[in-house]
Each structure stands twice: as C-alpha cells, then as structure tokens.
Specification:
The chain has about 250 residues and is mainly β. Helix content is about 10%, strand content about 30%. The strands form two sheets. Strands 3, 4, 5, 6, 9, 10 and 11 form a seven-stranded mixed beta sheet that branches. It has a five-stranded antiparallel beta sheet with strand order 2-1-7-8-12, with no helix packed on it. The two termini are about 20 Å apart.
Length: about 250
C-alpha cells in the first residue's frame, strides 16, 4: 500500500518529467499524509496541468464523507469493477509526482519504518481523481493512488506497492478519451526491480507533524530504534464504526 510518501525533487525536475507549461513552484515535502493537499498531474483541454487535490478519494455519489471510508489507495486488480473507482478509471485518471514512499515492516510487536525511493529522480504514481459536490454546493477534487503487488525487492517490507507509470506511458494513462479503462489497466504492474532502493529509517516519520530531510536519512549502523510506548486501553465512549473521518 502507500500511506505516506515524499516529493523532494526540484520544481524544475518535476516540470521536465511531466512536460508542464508555466511555472511550477512548491517546496519539498518529506512526510505527505492522507487528507493533505497533494500535487496531481491531469489532462485538461489536451494539456497536462499540475493541480492540488485532497488525498483521499470521495466518489461523486457519496452524500456524507464523514460516513464513508477514507480511500487513499485503490487496488489495481479491481479498479474496473469496484463502484468507488470504476468511473474514475474510465474518465479521471491522473499522475501523482513522487520521489519515494514509506513502508513499515512488522518485527514482533513493533513496526520498523523503511524508505523506498527511486534511484534516478522523480517518478509518477498512477492516480484516480473525483470531483465531489456537497449538499450545500461545496466542491472538492480528491485523489487516490493505485497499488499493485510488490516487486521482489519490496515484498520483504509489504505485499503491496504503488503503481509507477513510466514516462513513455504517461499519455496512455492520462488520455481517457482515447484510451479505455481496460487498455489503461494493462499498465498496472509491479515496478522494475532496479527502480527503487529501500533502507530502514528513524521512527520519527511515524508522526505526521514531523517533516524535513532527516526523516529519509538511513538508520546508522548499530543504531537501535526506541521501543514503542506502552498503550493503556481505555473504554470507548461510543461504538467504533470502523470508519476513518475525512474531517
């Protein structure tokens, strides 16, 4: 899966990769988390445009987002079948600029964070977006990242990874008018083995409030991660409905 990721490349590198016109300007982000605004590339009037969308897709038919699960990822195997994703797969495919993502490997009672990053500059995750309109006319563009089975390098960390779209396939993924969902789905596959490298990092990344290049620094040889704090179970004031609120 992909629950946190980073964009560290310069705006110039992002502009060159996606062939964007005009000025591209945003700071590096080292701990992007769900519900935050993220830059997304989509096709509009035949031109690639960079726009901000909220990470956590809300299908157009949802009445109350607070009663709907937070959809940050879409399983690539079922995007053409699931009601939450199939319309976006047909008409609203996009690309999510990135340089890498975080994954947590289970080690007994704890999870150890790792950073998987592209070796040669920025990449593009496959994304799906929706325009949601609320009952009072409020509008919000939302997005999720498509995932697939992890490649051999990353499967030791998790069984899923984001779908990476190669530059030569950008048009095929983005052009929903000329490329149907079934053909676009052929791009959903694990990334090449040599695209990423991964290493363990500090648990400082666990807090979404933390940001900065120190989060992607490799754990030093012999450095031991601090043990997680003990948690004391507290009675819940109300029944947990298992839904994650968007607000």
């Amino acid at each position: 899966m992909c629950g946190r990721y980073v964009i560290t490349s310069s705006p110039e590198a992002i502009q060159a990769l996606f062939g964007l016109r005009g000025q591209v300007d945003f700071p590096p982000r080292y701990n992007i988390a769900p519900t935050q605004p993220i830059p997304v590339v989509r096709l509009a009037d035949g031109e690639r445009r960079l726009e901000l969308m909220r990470w956590g897709l809300i299908p157009a038919w949802v009445k109350d987002p607070r009663q709907f699960s937070l959809l940050i990822n879409a399983r690539g195997e079922s995007v053409n079948d699931k009601p939450a994703f199939r319309n976006a797969m047909r008409r609203r495919r996009c690309l999510v600029p990135a340089d890498g993502f975080y994954e947590w490997k289970r080690d007994g009672e704890r999870k150890r964070p790792y950073f998987a990053h592209a070796k040669n500059g920025p990449i593009a995750f496959a994304g799906l977006w929706e325009a949601w309109t609320g009952p009072n006319g409020e509008e919000m563009d939302t997005v999720c990242i498509v995932t697939t089975a992890a490649n051999r390098l990353l499967t030791r960390l998790h069984d899923r990874m984001p779908v990476v779209i190669a530059p030569e396939a950008f048009d095929m993924w983005l052009d929903c008018d000329r490329v149907d969902a079934e053909l676009a789905a052929t791009l959903i596959a694990p990334a090449p083995e040599d695209l990423f490298e991964a290493y363990e990092i500090s648990t400082a990344v666990n807090r979404t409030a933390n940001d900065g290049p120190h989060l992607i620094a490799p754990l030093k040889d012999g450095e031991v991660q601090p043990a997680p704090p003990l948690r004391v179970a507290r009675p819940r004031a109300r029944k947990d409905d298992g839904q994650q609120s968007l607000f």
